[in-house]
Amino acid sequence: MTQEGAQSVSLDLLKQKMANFAKERDWDKFHSPRNLLLALVGEVGELSEIFQWKGEVPKGLPDWKEEEKVHLGEELSDVLLYLVRLSDICGIDLGKAALRKVELNAIKYPASKKYTNNNHGTSKSD
């Protein structure tokens, strides 16, 4: 097992690696948008199980064991990799789409407004 090193990993690198991984195994025939979405949802479920019954967890996970953090990293990676593969199969530039969404959210939720924690931190308090 090799790692890319300490440098930042791009979505394009992940997209290329996932495409090669699928091609080498002749899995492209299984990677329809629907199948990838269902796999992604399954992985989100596995990610959710890690947090189930833990209550609120502080940032940085200071009370977690190292093996719990490793497991979390694996499940987060599964979600990311399926999302990258799904966007590739659908012809969506995920990086550009995400940047556009951040810009749209900045317009929708201007920094000059005060926000409460109601509705997942998205409601304005005037």
UniProtKB/TrEMBL annotation:
Subcellular location: Cytoplasm, Cytosol
Catalytic activity: dCTP + H2O = dCMP + diphosphate + H(+)
Broad enzyme group: hydrolase
GO biological process: dCTP catabolic process; DNA protection
Cofactor section: Mg(2+)
EC number: 3.6.1.12
Keywords (A to Z) from UniProt: Cytoplasm, Hydrolase, Magnesium, Metal-binding
Tagged with keyword Nucleus: no
Span of domain NTP pyrophosphohydrolase MazG-like: 32-100
Keyword Magnesium attributed: yes
GO terms for cellular component: cytosol
Main location: cytoplasm
UniProt-recorded Gene Ontology molecular function terms: dCTP diphosphatase activity; magnesium ion binding
Role this protein plays: Hydrolyzes deoxynucleoside triphosphates (dNTPs) to the corresponding nucleoside monophosphates. Has a strong preference for dCTP and its analogs including 5-iodo-dCTP and 5-methyl-dCTP for which it may even have a higher efficiency. May protect DNA or RNA against the incorporation of these genotoxic nucleotide analogs through their catabolism.
Assembly: Homotetramer.
Protein name as annotated: dCTP pyrophosphatase 1
Designated gene of the protein: LOC111283907
